[in-house]
Amino acid sequence: MKVVAVASILAVIAVLAPFAGQERGREKSDKDLLVMKPSSIKWEKSEGMEGVWVSHLTGESNAAPFVDMLKFSRGTRIPLHWHSANHIVTVLSGTMVLGKEGKPDESMGMEIPAGGYARITAKVPHWTFAKEDSIVVISGDKEHDLHWMEKDKGEKK
To answer: Does residue 38 have a cis peptide bond before it, meaning omega lies within 30 degrees of 0?
Structure first.
């Protein structure tokens, strides 16, 4: 399992390195290569979602296509929502639970441990629950957007 997790992390790094445009916190870089240590990653509180922080690996929040890294606090629940883009979600650390109907409920979703991934088709309603502190990488083929199915937004319980 650890080999799969390490291989997944290395694959994500190899794919993202040419596209990463963050200027702050650079360790060593030139125009074609950017290397970031975990302590240098710039995290921003995700607007409207308690317990979630985001780092835009493609450099901007409105990049299209995009690659974002999200950090979830244990117990964070993101209610039913959908996106215009097709998504690939890779869990780098922790455990996430993903479901398609109802409210975020650990017993009703599909568990994604570190090293695993999920593919979510555009406009498919889904919810997310962070079973433990987790970091995921989300990539999409269009600009990242979020459409809530309910009035309640992300919350931590």
So the answer is: no
Give the span between the Cα atoms of 61 and 141, in whole angstroms.
Answer: 14
Q: Where are the strands (E) in the chain, listed by range?
A: 28-30, 33-35, 44-45, 52-56, 66-72, 76-82, 87-93, 95-99, 110-113, 117-120, 126-130, 134-140, 147-148, 155-156
- Lowest mean pLDDT, pick from 5-19, 47-61, 143-157: 5-19
8 A C-beta contact, residue 34 and residue 17: yes
pLDDT digits (tens, 9 = 90+) for 16-64: 555 554 444 445 557 788 888 999 999 999 988 999 999 999 888 788 9
Domains, the chain, ordered by start: 42-156 (2.60.120.10)
Per-residue pLDDT at 51: 96
Q: Is 157 exposed, middle or buried (0-12, 13-18, 19+ CB in 10 A)?
A: exposed
Q: For position 14, what pLDDT does the model report?
A: 45
Q: Residue 116 corresponds to which tokens in the numbers above?
A: 């695993």
Q: What's the whole-model pTM score?
A: 0.75
Tokens of 136: 């995921």
Structure-token match 């570190």, residue found = 114
